[in-house]
C-alpha cells in the first residue's frame, strides 16, 4: 500500500454469530479494498482488524454498525493499533478464539 493507511481494531457485540456476519464483513472489506481479518470470539463477540485508507476503513466501520440483515449489532468498539504492523494480503476469516 503506497497511500496513507490506517489500522483499526473492532469488537462487535450483539446477535453477531451464526448470522453470516464474518462472511458478510469479508465481502464488504473486499468491495472497499480493506485488508485484514475477522473472527468469532468464544464470548459471543466478533473481532476484526482492518488496514486501508482512512476513508475505506471508516466505511467498513460504518458497515460494522449494521452488519448483514440477520444481525443485530448492539455496539462496535473501535480501537487504534499503535504499530498497525504489516497488512495481510486480502481480508480473511480466522479461527474462533
UniProtKB/TrEMBL annotation:
Acylphosphatase-like domain boundaries: 7-95
Pfam families from the UniProt entry: Acylphosphatase
Superkingdom as given in the UniProt entry: Bacteria
Matching InterPro entries: Acylphosphatase, Acylphosphatase-like_dom, Acylphosphatase-like_dom_sf, Acylphosphatase_CS
Similarity remark: Belongs to the acylphosphatase family.
Stored PANTHER family: ACYLPHOSPHATASE
Name this polypeptide is given: acylphosphatase
